[in-house]
Amino acid sequence: EIGTLHGYSAILIANTMLGYIYGKENFDIDFKSTEPILISVEKDEKLATIARNNIENSRLSKLIQVINGDAIEEIPKLKSKFSMIFLDATKSEYLKYLQLIEEYGLLNKRAVVVADNVIIYENEMKDYLDYVRYSGKYISRTTKTTLEFTKNVRDALEVSINVVL
Questions:
Q1: Residues 6+ apart with CB under 8 A from 23
Q2: Which residues fall within 8 angstroms of residue 22, CB to CB, at 6 or more apart?
Q3: How far apart are CA 128 and CA 118, in angstroms?
Q4: What residues does each domain of the chain span?
Q5: pTM of the prediction?
Q6: What contacts 25, CB < 8 A, 6 or more positions away?
Q7: Can you list the alpha helix ranges (DSSP code H) found in 40-112?
Q8: Superfamily of domain 8-162 in the CATH hierarchy
Q9: Which tens digits make up the pLDDT trace of 4-61?
Q10: How far apart are CA 29 and CA 117, in angstroms?
């Protein structure tokens, strides 16, 4: 995840992953792995601290690692390949984030890349949207929704599947 904010999305994603792994939603599972199943990068130190506290309170701190740093600098340091990327940081940087992830070979084949807020920030992410829709590297679809915590502000996610080895 690029852009942690308060950790809300990280908590929801990790909980969903637990459901797929263990067939249930249960925060008290004795997770044996020493590796997190979700890495989240947050530029703002105060927000990273808030997110870590929220993640600790949700009992998912063994599963979620929050890295405090600029994603442009942190992405090259990552070692794992990822099956899913969630972009929810500086909207005008989405394409840079994705191209760095590609450059460092961090995507599994058929990895899913989800970009948040593609309607309300459409102008800032036009280059990103053109790239995932027309580069031939992704099958991409816009999934309409509403802005989180509202019922009447239209927004969308761009869900893109990596089709390149």
A1: none
A2: 29
A3: 10
A4: 8-162
A5: 0.89
A6: 15, 18, 19
A7: 45-57, 71-74, 94-103
A8: Vaccinia Virus protein VP39 (3.40.50.150)
A9: 999 999 999 998 887 766 665 555 555 555 567 899 999 999 999 999 999 999 989 9
A10: 32
